[in-house]
Amino acid sequence: MNQPTRTLDVQSFIDGERFSPCQWLILTLCFLAFAADGFDNAAIGYIVPALIRDWGVARDALGSVMSAALLGVGIGALAAGPLADRVGRKTVLVLSIACIGVWSLAAAQAHTIGVLLMFRFLTGLGLGAAMPTGITLTSEYAPERIRGVVVNSMICGFSCGMVIGGAASAWLIPHAGWKSVLIAGGVGPCLIALLVAVAMPESAQFLAVRQGTHARIARILKRIAPQQQFDNCRFVASQRGEPARGAALALVLSRRYLPRTLLLWAAYFLTLVVYYLLVNWMPTLFHDAGFDASRSALVTSLFPLGGVIGTVITGWLMDRFDANRTITFAYVLAALLVFIVGRSVGSAPVFFGVLIFLCGMVLTSAATSTSAYPARVYPTQARATGVAWVLGVGRTGAVAGAFLGGELLTLGWRAADVFGLLAAPTLLAGGAVYAVSICLSHARGEEEPTTAAVKHS
């Protein structure tokens, strides 16, 4: 066997190459996985009125069905990270997308609240596992110079899926009943899982920290740069000067990483409290404010539509300016717009629609960028775990937001009051993200004297 004659840093190699058709394929498949998540999140909200009519159940009983999926998402994310760091990103992604499809199809056959709740929880496990795995995989194949816009564009699949889910539900429910929405939400992920299994490569960085994977890595990198030769290479995964030893979760919770971990958890938790309260209850809030059903649905759909555009713009800005400050600024602007929306509920329809669009644009971009940001602050061995635990802990905020919205409506809170309240946690989330940059600066400051000492010893 030939001995390696040169060492090749996988990430540095990817950073130096053009964005190839192979990487476009990875971006597209992960985008579709996120679209399945977004479709599911929108669809369940739209079938609630039909369930109330068909089953004769109270509104608050279906709040538990909404929260069951969110709870499953949190648990799925927490479990998926360590698993993806152990067995591979692709394996976990295929299983999670298949889980979404199978249990969504099963939910379409439910005839009681209890059975529907169980299947929604199981669907949530797949949804939760797919998101951090997709973010990690896309991030590891994105060149550093365009990583922000690539990862954020992929996460736009969630907002696109929400738009499609709303439009599909509006047509399917009157023509084929609410079960057809869940069937559509099951068939799609099953097909996506098959595509991922056949066409998606495993993460080259993940393979680079394991033994006996030279041939697999060479084949993958050959798809990115066909003109290159890798016969005598030793592949490594760069850690950017940061040591990464031990179990993935232990590393994420270690003394070195714990401050940034807790801040990221807090930021994403607060973000999802705000986001899911609005996503789940905005149509009801506007209906209670005097909007008719069609106007309420139209205005609400502008929120995720704005998110698609805002997420791409924010990713582009993250690549050209400091990523942390870009996200922090998005939060500050989002808090301001959330407050203004609350004071503008009775304003002219066009003006109010523009405000909702802009609010969705900055709040969604802040949320998606925060979910992608952890991939920049954890090393390869713990990256999937770090991302997954941020998303998993944050998803408890989604559950809290869904319940909080129901409680505030029960107490008689108006749209203006709810939006005014939500400006505060939005601003706090921005402060937590900004504090992560302080932790990173402090960690780099500790490394420099150590490096200097080594050089002079």
TrEMBL record:
<feature type="transmembrane region" description="Helical">
    <location>
        <begin position="24"/>
        <end position="49"/>
    </location>
</feature>
<keyword id="KW-0472">Membrane</keyword>
<keyword id="KW-0812">Transmembrane</keyword>
<feature type="transmembrane region" description="Helical">
    <location>
        <begin position="351"/>
        <end position="375"/>
    </location>
</feature>
<dbReference type="InterPro" id="IPR036259">
    <property type="entry name" value="MFS_trans_sf"/>
</dbReference>
<feature type="transmembrane region" description="Helical">
    <location>
        <begin position="92"/>
        <end position="111"/>
    </location>
</feature>
<dbReference type="InterPro" id="IPR011701">
    <property type="entry name" value="MFS"/>
</dbReference>
<feature type="transmembrane region" description="Helical">
    <location>
        <begin position="149"/>
        <end position="174"/>
    </location>
</feature>
<dbReference type="Pfam" id="PF07690">
    <property type="entry name" value="MFS_1"/>
</dbReference>
<feature type="domain" description="Major facilitator superfamily (MFS) profile">
    <location>
        <begin position="26"/>
        <end position="441"/>
    </location>
</feature>
<feature type="transmembrane region" description="Helical">
    <location>
        <begin position="180"/>
        <end position="200"/>
    </location>
</feature>
<feature type="transmembrane region" description="Helical">
    <location>
        <begin position="117"/>
        <end position="137"/>
    </location>
</feature>
<feature type="transmembrane region" description="Helical">
    <location>
        <begin position="329"/>
        <end position="345"/>
    </location>
</feature>
<dbReference type="InterPro" id="IPR005829">
    <property type="entry name" value="Sugar_transporter_CS"/>
</dbReference>
<dbReference type="InterPro" id="IPR020846">
    <property type="entry name" value="MFS_dom"/>
</dbReference>
<protein>
    <submittedName>
        <fullName>MFS transporter</fullName>
    </submittedName>
</protein>
<feature type="transmembrane region" description="Helical">
    <location>
        <begin position="262"/>
        <end position="278"/>
    </location>
</feature>
<keyword id="KW-1133">Transmembrane helix</keyword>
<feature type="transmembrane region" description="Helical">
    <location>
        <begin position="298"/>
        <end position="317"/>
    </location>
</feature>
<feature type="transmembrane region" description="Helical">
    <location>
        <begin position="418"/>
        <end position="440"/>
    </location>
</feature>
<feature type="transmembrane region" description="Helical">
    <location>
        <begin position="61"/>
        <end position="80"/>
    </location>
</feature>
<feature type="transmembrane region" description="Helical">
    <location>
        <begin position="387"/>
        <end position="406"/>
    </location>
</feature>
